Amino acid sequence: MSREERDMRAGDYVLGLMDEADRARAERDLTIDPEFRDAVWSFSQRLEALDRSAAPEPVAGDLWSRVAAQIADVTQQTRLELVQSDMAAAGAPLTPPDRHGALGLKRPMSGFFRGARGTALAATMLAACALGYVIGQASVTARDPEVVVVLLNEEDVPGALVEAYADDRVRILPLTDFEVPAGKVLEVWTLYDADVGPVSLGTMDAAREAVLSGPDLPAPRPDQLYEITLEDAPRSAAGRPLGPILVKGFAVSPPR
Question: Are 197 and 209 in contact, with CB atoms under 8 Å apart?
Answer without folding.
Answer: no
